[in-house]
Design a protein that fits this description.
four-stranded parallel β-sheet, 50% helix, globular, 206 residues
Length: 206
């Protein structure tokens, strides 16, 4: 693994690259990184911008190869397995996703059970990660926030699948920029490894 990481400095983001390719194939877009960065589809534009701005130049070559392989898969075959592919990449590895460990699927199921039992129509997740809890929620409105830009991009890809809900995902720091809107439920697995500065702890305690 170390040799792979030296060869590909964006190793921990391989799964995000896979999802990017799946999304482009799903939308039937032509892969041209510069054109996609200016695309009317904001998610496609933001994904392209992230790859150009944050990732190693080799990442674009990896995407080109992946898109080449995907070109041999028919649109019908791909669409039949698109949702499963996305969910497998997000939930199926058991390894850090985009450099972070995400909430286990069983925990998402448990949280969603209690939310659905109380018939909550609006849900806020201040540390939403990939927002994989979405597939278990029966709510009409979901607002999710994550401080990690790459993970919030993943959440937006997943939310594109669940179009029956009104979904708003953004990149922000919920600890210092709490959403003051009213929701029926607030759910989350907080970022336990985050160490707060003393001034922020004082603010939250007051």
């Amino acid at each position: 693994m170390c040799s792979i990481k030296r060869q590909y400095p964006f190793y921990d983001h391989f799964n995000l690259l896979d999802l990017f390719c799946f999304y482009i194939k799903h939308k039937d877009y032509v892969f041209d990184i510069e054109s996609l960065e200016k695309h009317d589809d904001k998610l496609a534009a933001d994904l392209s911008h992230y790859v150009i701005r944050v990732m190693h130049p080799l990442a674009i070559e990896c995407i080109k190869k992946q898109m080449y392989y995907l070109s041999y898969v028919s649109k019908e075959q791909f669409e039949a397995s698109y949702i499963k592919l996305v969910e497998k990449v997000i939930n199926g590895t058991g390894k850090p996703f985009a450099g972070e460990f995400l909430t286990p699927d069983n925990i998402n199921r448990l949280i969603a059970y209690f939310v659905n039992k109380e018939v909550c129509n609006s849900v806020y997740d201040p540390y939403c990660g990939s927002a994989s809890i979405l597939k278990y929620l029966n709510c009409n409105e979901f607002c999710g926030v994550d401080i990690n830009e790459s993970v919030s991009l993943v959440a937006r890809i997943l939310s594109d699948i669940h179009k029956s809900k009104s979904i708003n995902i953004k990149t922000s720091n919920s600890i210092s920029e709490w959403n003051t809107n009213v929701f029926d439920a607030v759910v989350s697995c907080p970022p336990f490894e985050v160490r707060l500065k003393e001034d922020i702890v004082g603010e939250l305690s007051s």
